[in-house]
């Protein structure tokens, strides 16, 4: 599961892409204007950005360049109707990680996203491991000490996020930003509730929790 920003002004394209990605359990925010995309990226963090080249307000290649100049590191998949080599080079030079030429197959979009998600962190066969836990994002399985653990969808999403970012501290607000939809009414108290539930399901009695509380700061998964 990933949180994805789709920047595309053609509703006939953005709707099927969004629905397809949501069917794969990704969270998808849709923006149809280049300037609005820049504003969104100032306040929210995403795992992948899908960015169309031709946009109202500001072209996607300029959004990409400005985002990179401001320190943005999120992988960017550029969508373009331009098939000549020079335009593709321009997109990559602006900071795009990959590009797709329209029209494209939705399964290829999914494959490109999986490839981009693998780049920051080395994943082996889409399996995440930490201590006695194994998480399989593709099959939604969680295994603790060779026994399967049943998690609710949001519990699974939260645990998978921690597993992808071991030993990093995240505030409740950061977790809301990365795991919950941007328009969700969830609160820091929601995070505390889900952390408590996760600990009850994945921790081993008598041993320190794999999810550590950093008082006054947030939480981290101790790998």
Question: Which secondary structure elements does this structure contain, and how are they paired or packed?
Answer:
Blueprint: E1 3-7, H1 11-23, E2 27-31, H2 34-43, E3 48-52, H3 60-69, E4 76-80, H4 85-94, E5 98-101, H5 106-118, E6 128-130, E7 133-136, E8 141-144, E9 147-149, H6 153-164, H7 172-179, H8 188-202, E10 211-214, E11 218-221
Helix pairs in contact: 2-3, 3-4, 6-8, 7-8
Spell out the CATH superfamily of the largest domain: Response regulator
Total separate domains: 2
Order of helices and strands: EHEHEHEHEHEEEEHHHEE
Q: What's the shape?
A: elongated
Helix content: 40-55%
Range of strand content: 15-25%
Overall CATH architecture of the largest domain: 3-Layer(aba) Sandwich
Q: How would you describe this protein?
A:
The protein has 223 residues and is α/β, with parallel strands linked by helices. The chain folds into two domains: 3-118, Rossmann fold (3-Layer(aba) Sandwich); 128-221, Winged helix-like DNA-binding domain superfamily/Winged helix DNA-binding domain (Arc Repressor Mutant, subunit A, Orthogonal Bundle). Helices cover 41% and strands 21% of the residues. It is built from eight helices and eleven strands. The strands form three sheets. It has a five-stranded parallel sheet, sandwiched between helices. Helix 2 packs parallel to helix 3 (60-69), helix 3 (60-69) packs parallel to helix 4 and helix 7 (172-179) crosses helix 8. The chain is elongated. The chain starts with a strand and ends with a strand. Mean pLDDT is 88; it is low at 121-125.
